[in-house]
Amino acid sequence: MTNVTRTFVRGGKLNRAVDDVSLEIGAGKTLALLGPNGAGKTTLIKMIATLLEPSSGRIVVAGLDIKSNERQVRSNIGLVLGGDRGFYLRASVQENLNYFASLARVSRRRRPAVVAAVLDAVNLADRKRDAVETLSRGLRQRLHIARGLLSNPPLLLLDEPTIGLDPEAALALRDLVRSLKSGGHSILLTTHYLYEAEALADDVAVIIDGRIIARGAVTDIANAGGIGNVTVATLTHLPDTLGNSISQLAGVRNVNSEQVGGQRLVTVSWEPNRDNEPQLREVLATHAPLSVVTRPATLEEGYLALVARRRMTIG
Ligand SMILES: Nc1ncnc2c1ncn2[C@@H]1O[C@H](COP(=O)(O)OP(=O)(O)OP(=O)(O)O)[C@@H](O)[C@H]1O
């Protein structure tokens, strides 16, 4: 998409829900779109799915401009919004998929094979005769993905696919998303679970107030938030003045401490390429640290630093 903007009028004021966004997703790649509530993620996904028209800008899916090829583009996209709606609850899994396959213009002749293939892909074949209302939330979410796969679309749009799932069901769903990716689908994923984005995505884009403020690998997001590596020190106790002494070291961006079990974890975020574990060890030496480990910032640490930095610059 190139220079895409979508405005809404609210209370007589023009609100730019998506503001001049340009993004591309490579074939077979997964892009995670992250951002706070109301940042513009769903608006962006709805525009790609042709459910909402951009106010300006251009969106191209598999080489086709969505404005002039709406019907064809729809069959190139699998939209998975999830939740409890979207199925006939008393009808069976198979009946639902047959119906949605007809809407997706899968020919009557090909329908049985296509429905069998998507059921296999999401591992639901053994439940095909059961009414949808008997499926757990995790299995319903698989059914949503099966529905999105009916036209074998090159692009899948997954809006918070694991929301509300228990940890085991969420893990199984992440495995399913990985297998779709290795099957060649490009995926645009929105999620508020940062470890999920880190586990699944090749690339991350952060949207705030309708604008993409950072895009790239996890390190790029962290660097945009002003942090590079992070050192975690484990201590048996934390003297009052220690945090202050650490924050005075060159290159320190932020210091946090928390109690975990009987231990104190001190987390030191360093500015990009300015980590200095030896100097930190000197400060910690008289407090007998149990361990000191330096590693790259996680996506969660990078994202939180980026959002905080953004709020500081506009607030
Ligand atoms: N139909 C609409 N009419 C008016 N304003 C809207 C409409 N849809 C979205 N908005 C506004 O556009 C902005 C972006 O909303 P959007 O739902 O895209 O955010 P989001 O990033 O998906 O949020 P969440 O993480 O909460 O799902 C918000 O300010 C929202 O109030």
Question: What are its keywords?
Answer:
ABC_transporter_ATP-binding; 11 helices; 15 strands; alpha/beta; Alpha-Beta Plaits; binds adenosine-5'-triphosphate; ATP-binding; 2 domains; 6-stranded mixed β-sheet; single chain; 315 residues; 35% helix; 4-stranded antiparallel β-sheet; Rossmann fold; transport
Mean pLDDT: 92
Global structural class: alpha/beta
Bound molecule kinds, no repeats: adenosine-5'-triphosphate
Q: What name does CATH use for the topology of the largest domain? A: Rossmann fold
For the terminal residues, how far apart are their CA atoms? Answer: 30 Å
Shape: globular
Range of helix content: 25-40%
Strand content: 25-35%
| Series of H and E elements | EEEHEEEHEHHHEHEHEEHEHEEHEH
Please compute the radius of gyration using only Cα atoms. 23 Å
Name the CATH architecture of the largest domain. 3-Layer(aba) Sandwich
Q: Layout of SSEs?
A:
Elements: E1 2-10, E2 13-21, E3 30-34, H1 41-48, E4 56-58, E5 60-61, E6 64-65, H2 70-75, E7 77-80, H3 93-103, H4 111-121, H5 137-149, E8 155-159, H6 167-182, E9 186-190, H7 194-200, E10 203-208, E11 211-216, H8 218-224, E12 229-235, H9 242-247, E13 252-260, E14 263-270, H10 277-284, E15 291-296, H11 299-314
Parallel strand pairs: 3-9, 3-10, 7-8, 8-9
Antiparallel strand pairs: 1-2, 1-4, 5-6, 10-11, 12-14, 12-15, 13-14
The structure holds adenosine-5'-triphosphate.
